[in-house]
Amino acid sequence: MAKAAIITGGTSGIGLAAAEIFIKNHYKCALVGRSEQRARAALDKFNTDSAIYIQADVCRVDDCDKVVSEAVQRLGGVDILVNCAGVYSEGAIVDVDEIEYGRIFDTNVKGTFFMCRAAVPALSAAKGAIVNVASDAGVKGNYFCALYAASKGAVVAFTKSLALELAHIPVRVNCVAPGDVWTPMTRAQLERSGETVEDLAAVYPMRRIATAEEVAEAVCFLAGPKANFTTGAVLSVDGGLTA
Fold first, then answer.
1. pLDDT 10s digits, 8-58
2. With 130 labelled, which of 31, 95, 110, 186 sits at a CA distance of 20 to 30 A?
3. Rg (CA), the chain
4. Which of 88, 101, 148, 204 does the annotation list as catalytic?
């Protein structure tokens, strides 16, 4: 039986790129997201029975539970969970209100935590793997980005802690920490700030930002059998930014 992956944020960006790699390697994928329009475009792109869409908002604990139960029912089990759903925020701390705090932490931290909680029984049965998507901001902090950095720092600490908790099963838990990536979220960020992609690239030793596919390759490596003895790792995919 083909292995199955749940990918939150799977209808665009890094999540969609990861799904494409998984499907090429004969996995079945449940793409999780809020937008039916993006989901239809993704499913049309793949044009295969190996990909399904589950509409959900990971900020809601009931939705996290629903995603896993539906994926198990429709795909026959769950071997991999990729927590890629995330939102971005930047600005001074004095301008952050409780609503914005909740928006960032509910998606980036609460969603990751409760998707993992929901998936652990199925992943335990499969001796599977979790890959969380953090950020360079969660490793070193970013200027004018305290709220987002705090949320991604929480993902890093959570990944390491959960890796220790589940190592005996074994369910492996790792995360990737990308820098800027050319995704719809980054394009929206540039539109708001008035910066260009060249402005972003200037701070990177490799003088460019990542593609979604490059980060997705790291995700799929950590999820796959070549990383069987890797757990609790934070894999930086940032062109040398945090070196």
1. 999 999 999 999 999 999 999 999 999 999 999 999 999 899 999 999 999
2. 186
3. 17
4. 148
3-state secondary structure the chain: CCCEEEEECCCCHHHHHHHHHHHHCCCEEEEEECCHHHHHHHHHHHCCCCEEEEECCCCCHHHHHHHHHHHHHHHCCCCEEEECCCCCCCCCHHHCCHHHHHHHHHHHHHHHHHHHHHHHHHHHHHCCEEEEECCCHHHHCCCCCHHHHHHHHHHHHHHHHHHHHHCCCCCEEEEEEECCEECHHHHHHHHHHCCCHHHHHCCCCCCCCEEHHHHHHHHHHHHCHHHCCCCCCEEEECCCCCC
Q: CB neighbours of 97 closer than 8 A, spacing ≥ 6?
A: none
Instruction: Please tell me whether the overall predicted TM-score, pTM, comes out greater than 0.90 for this model.
Output: yes
